[in-house]
Amino acid sequence: MTAAPPKRRDFDYRDVTIFPPYPDETPTDLLADGDPDDLVRVAKLDGFVIGAYRLAQIDETQFTIKALTVREAYRGRGIGRWMLGHAVGIAELKGARVINAPLAGAAFFAKVGFERQGSRLRLKLTPE
Q: Whole-angstrom Cα distance, residue 128 to residue 109?
């Protein structure tokens, strides 16, 4: 786990980079353990992990965002939406036509088009 830097007031989401984590920096305090095949990405500011997401491929065209979180001190700057866009883009590049998300984040996910379907949220992607 990497400690978070002191909160900066002079940044926005464009200052944050998203990468696969190094083996020693998977933020277990942000993401619960998951399947080793899950795709994990971390959001970094000045080299420190401030957010992360976990994406799983269910089948050829269906993916699930298992978790997406930003450290509390860094919320409200668009970082979560930046990471969500990244996750959707990665899934789409891998062939996704449907992306599921947990109900726990319903208000957040609804802002970008996820709709409730049973016990999950769902975003349907349409080919160009």
A: 22
